[in-house]
Every structure is written in C-alpha cells, then in structure tokens.
Amino acid sequence: MKYTENAINILTAKTFKGIGRAWLVKNLRGNESIEKLLSLINNNSKQENKLTIHDFEHNRNIIINKLSSFKDNCDGLVAIGDINFPKYRGTVKESEQPIYLFYKGNLDLLNISNTNISVIGLLNPDESIEIRERKLVAEIVKSGITIVSGLAYGCDSIAHQQALEGGKTVAILPSPLDNILPSKNKILAEQIVKYGGLLVSEYYENFKSSMELSSRYKERDRLQALFCDTIILAASYAQDSAKRWNILNQKLDSGARLAMGYAKEYNIPRAVMYDHYTDNDNPMFDLNRQLITESTDVTILTHKRLEEILLKIKSKNKLLIESNTIQGSLFN
C-alpha cells in the first residue's frame, strides 16, 4: 500500500479534538513537519492540553498498524499536499473539501484533466429506465468519458456495468475498501478494478452505528458531485413521493436527491433523463420533474443536448490540459 509521510501525518492530525476538514484545509498546505503540525494544533485547535511529539507518534503508529492489515484491499492513500492528490471540481467550502482518499485501481481517473460524468439514480428502476440508462451510458463511454457512481443497487450498478463494456468507471464508497457496500456488489467492485477502473473511499475504519453509516452515505453523495464535470440523474423518487403516490412499505432513496443538491451548491452542471410524454405519471421520475420545475439550469437530455454536453466538457478539459502544459513548461 502506497502512502507518503505527509498523508499519514494528515490522517493522524485529524484524530485530535477540533481537527476536521475545514481546519486542515485552512491551516495546511501539505508536507508540514510533525513539529509544525503540533505547533499549529496546539495554537489553533480546541485541545484542552498541549500535545507532545509522543502523543502524535502514538496516534500515528496506531494508524500505520491499522493500514498494514488493510493493504491487500487498498493500493494507496493520498492526501492534500501529495503531488497526485486529485483536484475536485466546482466551488466548495472548506468543510466539504476532501482531504484524503483511499483508493484501489487507477487514481488518474479522478484527475481534473480526465473527463468524468456521474450517473446516479434510484435503487429499483423499472425495465424501461434501465434500457434508457444503458443507452445513455454507452453513448457517454463511446466518447471516452469516465463514468462515476456510487456502487449502490439499481441505477448506480447499471451505470458501472454498462461502463465496463468498453470504458472506465469509478465507484465512490461509503465504507472502507475491505468492506465493500453493498456486499452483493463486491464482484462488481472487483471487475471495476480489473478492467482499469477505480474504487475510492474516505474511510479506513468501519462505521460504528447506523447513524454514522447514514452520514457516510451523504459524504459519498458529495464526492459524486465533486469528482465529475457533469452529473446526470437517470431517475429518482422525490422526498415526498411515498406520500404523494401512497407508496407503502418501501424505502425510497434520498441519495440521488442529495447528490443533485450538492452539485447545485458546487456549481456542477446537472442534467436529467426525462420525456414529458412517457414519464409524467411515473413516480420514479418525481425528482427529475421537481428539478426541471425548480431550476432553469437543469438540462433535459436529448441526443442533441447530450452531444452538446460532451463537446463542452471536452473543450473545457482540452483548454485545461493546454494551460497546465504551458505553466509546466515555464518551470522546466
């Protein structure tokens, strides 16, 4: 398992009281010495007592020991300050910026110069939704674009499976890489890595309660927005669908709603699958309808509009790559 001293130190710093994402993003640039980290923590956090080198080394060794048993399931750990730490998309407040990631597979797929589209949706799509989603993903993959999703049942699994037919895909998990969730998708996770894709997670420890797991799913939804150039909703119930359609004894998803909400907050372009003639009375498109009604910036996908989205993303990334090449040459 690959990691830098910097990554381990950042992981260790986060174990102390008052040290969260916002603090780390605000105070660190990466590759600070342990002495510098301790000085910052002691002067700018909520620690009741001054931390010592011994305190830091103790927590650091605990983490290294945990990671040693984790290595067969994880290729590496990257953190802010590492040269290969991927840049997120959009405009994001400090408390929601990723600070480290565990990964297995091709980490370059998260590179900002790589074109990514997230495709998400509900857990139990009907057959017509699956057919339409597969056609959509196939068209995206044909353009050399990477598919990002959350490895959940339903629309997420469909997106990953279709992407594997000639393309690459990234699965963002709410669990450590040695505890794939949902467990029935473990084989799919292995296929994603085998065929050049990527598994990524912010966690190396298992959740301790259902409340913590629920929070991790929300964090996963945020990453689905942060690491894509556009996010597409295949289909999803809305928050009030159960009441509106009198749907009883069935869990209706909120993950897609949250991911689309994060994308709006981060200024990530959003699009939805929707046909006014066929989907108007289908509760599985409630969220799609709601987003279209509430926001003028949500694109309703047609073949032409999908082509426009793909062309726009590719043009933006081409300019970004050229810009990075020019800047790099100035320092050679």
UniProtKB/TrEMBL annotation:
Residues 78-234 form the Smf/DprA SLOG domain. This is DNA processing protein. InterPro entries: DprA, DrpA_SLOG. Belongs to the DprA/Smf family. One of its GO terms (biological process) is DNA-mediated transformation. Pfam families: DNA_processg_A (PF02481). It comes from Rufibacter quisquiliarum.
